[in-house]
Amino acid sequence: MADAGCFADPSNKPGEKGDDKRMKKIAGILIWIACSIAQAFGQDQGRKENVRSELRKGNALYAEQKYDEAQNVYREALKKDPTSYTGMFNMGDALYRGKQFAPAREAMDASAKTTTDKMQQAHAYHNIGNTWLEEKKWEEAIAAYKQALRLNPTDTDTKYNLAYAQAMLKKNGGDKNNKDKDKKNKDKKAQDKKDKDKKDQDKQDQDKQDKDKKDQEQQDQDKKNEDNKQ
Known about the structure:
By secondary structure, the protein is mainly alpha-helical. The protein is 83% helix and 0% strand. The protein contains seven helices and no strands.
């Protein structure tokens, strides 16, 4: 609500003509609107200053490596301004320093969504890549660094980290692929041998059945011949 001094209705004065009364009333409304805007602007500026003050406190705690305490202060700042890029980014940084990598990623991702500034977004994705790097998730780290470089192609730190992640993926992923390939080859050889052994056994069984059948037929024929002689 506007302060009492901001609005006085001049239309209550007796003896004024209709046009004058209307003009005075319009002027009063305009004054009230102007006062309301000024008051809202003042409140918004006050809120932003409170947020900046909270962020400064958080940054001081961060500098002292009191990351948990810094996180609490950043949370208070974000309650007052949930769209603060700086608040969300600093929160992510404090979480990262506290080895809370998954929450740090969430905060960094949220900070990237609160701004249209490409440099700020690039910084967020760079740090997201760092969280994946800490967890040795090379492919995820590479994807984050590439996104950062799309936004800021000249960032040498991101280029270095990307190259490192790619080298680690090649080293570890290559070993894994080779092991998988060797395992598949061994499995295939084992299956081929199993199939061959089964075929050999089936052939032996069939040969035995054929021989037994032939022997039985011969015995039957010999018996029949003996019976005929008698």
